[in-house]
Amino acid sequence: MTGSTAHLSGTAPQVRHALQSDGTFTSVLETLVGEPVGITRVSQHDADRTHYAEELETDAVSRLLVRRVVLAGLNSGIPLAVATTHVVPDRLPARFVDDLRAGRHPIGRLLLLHRIESLREPVRLTGEAAAQHAPLLGHEDPHEQLLVRSYRVVIGAVPAMLIRERVSPTGLRRAGAALTVGEPGGGR
Fold this sequence. Notes:
This protein has helices at 13-20, 25-33, 53-56, 94-102, 107-113, 169-174; strands at 37-47, 64-73, 79-87, 119-129, 145-155, 158-167. By secondary structure, the protein is an alpha+beta fold. The protein has one domain (6-174): Chorismate lyase. It has a six-stranded antiparallel sheet. Strand 5 and strand 6 form a beta hairpin. It is globular, with a radius of gyration of 16 Å. The two termini are 27 Å apart. The model is unreliable at 181-188 (pLDDT under 50).
């Protein structure tokens, strides 16, 4: 995994672990905030190519599906993260792609439902300003730093998806997650 982790200093160990995990991110978020987490699709479109073609090991001919969702607490409605996924549909079963397009389930849950064995291969862990994601995350400050993790979902030794999750520390705090050492449940 590339990228500086300096922006994680002072972040609770369980949050650092969540961001560096190769597990289903929705389940990790549910553990952190203590409530079920669901998705709301913000946008979805087909694309001929992407500037992530190298990371996805695709050529200019490959058709891609680009999906953007907000992950939020189902009880509280608090937005926790924005995820953008670049999918190579030809590398996945047709029924999985149909369910993905329907937008009812997070990707990790779909992989489990369809019993698709996969590897989550970390690409980078960074931070970035909320910018255009601020309204989706319920922020007024577009300069708030989000925790960002990118990883590839590899199926059959070939990258099928590139996922970029932008996690809101403010959203996690509002939902009750302890984010720094010393906060209740924060690792002391």
